[in-house]
Design goal:
The structure is a homodimer.
Chain A lengths: L13 H19 L6 H8 L3 H7 L3 H25 L4 H12 L5 H13 L4 H27 L8 H21 L11 H8 L11
Helix pairs in contact in A: 1-2, 1-4, 2-3, 4-5, 4-6, 4-7, 5-7, 6-8, 7-8
The structure holds a DNA duplex.
DNA sequence: TCTACTATTGATCACACGATCAATAAGTTG
DNA sequence: CAACTTATTGATCGTGTGATCAATAGTAGA
């Protein structure tokens, strides 16, 4: 599978190699987690000398932080695009919960969990984590406020509700990361929880 | 603060030293996280040679797993004792949410988050994590089932609700671990979420 | 074609990790 | 007091980490 003996790396432009390394870091992170994003790990992914990775990155903390940010921002963009197709805030929220809790993004969940832990040693990462969490909160808050404006939702603090819904999602996904056995039915009852926070009648969120 | 030069360690019985090392591992974990539970880290805490820690533990994976288990089981015992004072399942549940979300146990939250991440490399830890999560679920499930029996709660799957409530709690706490700014109001609206899952009227959970 | 530039590398350093082992010294027992 | 047991240690090994630097080789421009 792997090539234990690497002969030579094709010479590429700095810009090209730079994005190649960033992409490789993302690939390594999604495959083996943020902890595997090391000088040697990324270098092996690109099939290049470890020193080259160090040459293109100021330090590994920065690469890890940027890798986290890239992966998470991409996820937000994807989910945002997906959800935008729905008409009402209610159906958008329902689709958001469904797609984030169906287990199809467990690799990104691992990234989140590791980032929370790693953020205590990597200040650049911690800052990035806070920024991305805020982007997610803003995104969800907009949906909720639209629902308030249309009279579908009822709450006096959309920001706080958005914050808590995201916490619930991440917590459920993190749990599923470890004990995969009960992971099948996550997302079924969270609808009721969100309905409770938004003053909706029971089961409304699941209706088409 | 620290003693850079250690002269000699008082000779103690094997049993005594063994618990001393286990306690030190817990102290290190609560102070600096599970990642700081290393041969040298624990040895420094006990003020003893690193080799002695290795002498008393089969390997570090086991010590980390046991340290996690000890801390989390102790937390469950404490919370269980606290909550048992309340009369009804509803007030027990309300107190449970309050005490787990008031930020007084952030050190344990860090342990949980790190355990989820570390569990992918440490199989003994992963097993312990699943066991402790199951203990928590069983504990909360008993409260919910008592509420169903008394007619206060309404749900057709207490185990699943217990699972999801714990997920919500852990997720909110994990978020607070990173962006402490908004951590003040966590726990205020989660009541509404739980009310939604248990068929309660809005605000009932917060009533005395 | 010759030269200047620069992408790439091998070698190496300092550090922290887990782990092992022979040697030592503090108790304990006879 | 001697012999034995064992808690404790220093030294050491192998591995993995981030980081630096002089040397090399491929490329583009004069």
């Amino acid at each position: 599978m792997s090539r234990p003996a690497r002969k030579k790396a094709a010479r590429k432009s700095a810009a090209e190699r730079s994005v190649e390394i960033a992409d490789a870091a993302c690939a390594v992170a999604l495959e083996h987690g943020l902890y595997a994003v090391t000088l040697r790990g990324v270098a092996a992914q690109v099939d290049v000398a470890p020193a080259l990775v160090a040459h293109y990155e100021p330090n590994m903390d920065a690469l890890v932080a940027n890798t986290f940010g890239t992966i998470v921002a991409r996820e937000l963009a994807e989910v945002g695009e997906l959800v935008a197709e729905r008409e009402s805030p209610r159906t958008r929220l329902a689709l958001l919960l469904e797609t984030l809790l169906d287990g199809s993004r467990d690799d990104v969940t691992l990234i989140w969990v590791e980032a929370w832990a790693l953020g205590r040693r990597n200040e650049a990462l911690a800052e990035r984590v806070r920024a991305e969490m805020d982007d997610w909160r803003t995104f969800l808050q907009a949906i909720i406020e639209a629902g308030i404006a249309s009279g579908e939702f009822e709450t006096d603090d959309a920001a706080s509700v958005a914050w808590q819904v995201l916490g619930m999602i991440d917590g459920l996904n993190a749990h599923a990361l470890v004990s995969w056995e009960d992971s099948g039915d996550r997302g079924t009852r969270i609808g009721h929880a969100v309905e409770g926070m938004l003053g909706l009648h029971r089961g409304v969120l699941a209706e088409p």
